[in-house]
Write a structure and sequence with these properties.
This protein is an alpha/beta fold. The protein has one domain: P-loop containing nucleotide triphosphate hydrolases (Rossmann fold), CATH 3.40.50.300. Helices cover about 30% and strands about 20% of the residues. It is built from eleven helices and twelve strands. The strands form two sheets. It has an eight-stranded mixed beta sheet, sandwiched between helices. Strands 2-1-4-5 form a four-stranded antiparallel beta sheet. Helix 3 packs across helix 4 and helix 3 packs parallel to helix 5. The two termini are about 35 Å apart. The C terminus is likely disordered.
Length: about 325
Amino acid sequence: MSTPPLVVVEGLTKHYPVREGLLIPREVGRVRAVDGVSFQIAGGETLGLVGESGCGKSTVAKLLVRLVEPTAGSVRIDGVDLAALDPAALRRARRALQIVFQDPQASLNPRMRAEDIVVEPLVIQGAQRGPQLRRRAAELLEMVGLSAAQAGSYPHEFSGGQRQRLGIARAIAPNPRFIVCDEAVSALDVSVQAQIINLLQDLQRDLKLSYLFISHDLSVVKHISDRVAVMYLGKIVEIADKRSLYRAPVHPYTRALIASIPVAHPRLRKPSTRLAGDLPSALAPPAGCAFHTRCAHAGDTCRSQAPPLRPLGPQRLVACHFAERFASASDSSSF
């Protein structure tokens, strides 16, 4: 019998109401930030989540740790539905899941010392301050490549990469099983990015962690992920293992993203699949397939019917009416 997934997300939806009127506001529309997202993450697995800015990736991150309340859908960690928990039960459940934010400068309290920052989750969970907690802080700092001698330093005394290491140390403090990395390396220099990625992989191996790794950098996602989910305008349009997705992307949007990855040597460059137009507004998404306004292959069916995310082979899900046609195309990108 196969092991059940650690994280199960089903129909996750977040719509933000738009209201007009000063004295008696009335709802005039809804921003469909996330619109029916479903995926699973196994224990010890890293699922990459990619897509253009504004497609809803960071909203998914906040929904997974319930920093914002979903409009609909469910997030289950080890079979427990987070949306059904009261505040006290949610606080206990958060020992199993944590988040690493994009901006380490904004996500750390500038008035707190490093040791207080990394053990703050333990204090929230009821741990008493004292020598034992200080020893735990020193241990966490060393686990992420910092020195115990830096325990008394404040965030402004660290570099950007060191501040992100602090954020990671805080995330692993309560011994979670699942961590959401929301653009965790995008604000860092390339050389520092590599160090942080290596650190995350080492911690995953040693602590048996699962990650949702959100990024717009497809090269980084290819390096760290086991599977990749591609998101467009609040929906998942393709999920596959990374080798299959980068070697032979199926959805036209995925094909365009993969083709846009920079290649250093001119002889290795391939004709790019250019996207026409801009990302539509989440306030008024197109009818039918949300991508049809930018897709060169769109037909009448695409303009009238939204394609479901359906299986295409044993390890791939695609939301496209013509997925079989693209899967057999001979001009797929190869990496």
